Amino acid sequence: MRFGVISDIHGNLVALQTVLERMGPVDQYWCLGDVVGYGPEPEECVQTLLDLDHVVVMGNHDAAAVGVISARDFNGEARRALEWTARQLSRESAAYLKAAPEQLPRNEILLVHGSPRDPIWEYLTSTEQAREVFGETNNPYTFVGHTHVPLVFLQDREGRVLSGTPRDQMLLKLGAERMIVNAGSVGQPRDGDPRAAYAVVDSEAMSVEFHRIEYDVAETQRRMRAAGASPWLIERLKYGR
Ligand code: ZN
What we know:
The chain is of the alpha/beta class. It has a single domain (2-104, 165-174, 182-239), classed as Purple Acid Phosphatase, chain A, domain 2. The protein is built from 8 helices and 12 strands.
């Protein structure tokens, strides 16, 4: 079976539609949270997912948009975007986001937005953090989002933790080593590369293939302007920052 890994869509419908087209058919989509927040089409992104066979875990922006956590924990621009986002969501979409679990196991793979020990908030960026998470959990593979930066942590047989950046079209074997995999962000990449990021898991081959693809950033920016988004949030999409 093939699974499409999509994370941090952030209301960017143009990026989401482009990713879905380019990915081609998969058996199920795994959405790692932050469907909404920042982007101009949160309602449309939720409705697009609802038409697909998919599972979703809760992201911090999803949680704040529907009142599960307080928007006060976000910086000013993120908070204003969240307040705007909350007003765009239908009752159905809000209920959908509210019902998302914080963690979801799929056989050997655990899906979570931030990290298994702090599912909504922890940004897993360092090998020190990854070492702690490996020590506190026992699932073989964990797929995360939240940082908007593609990154793989691997614990080798001696217990050492290494990290590496997956490039476009890189194929990673899910083997004996435990891994924490971040496929990056569909709708707001932050690694200096503005292209949308996603991955495809093949459960027979036990592999993950990483992808970066261009989408019409200018069109998303145009829609953000029309929605009255902040200039900085509009600008950053061009730089992937
Ligand atoms: Zn996010």
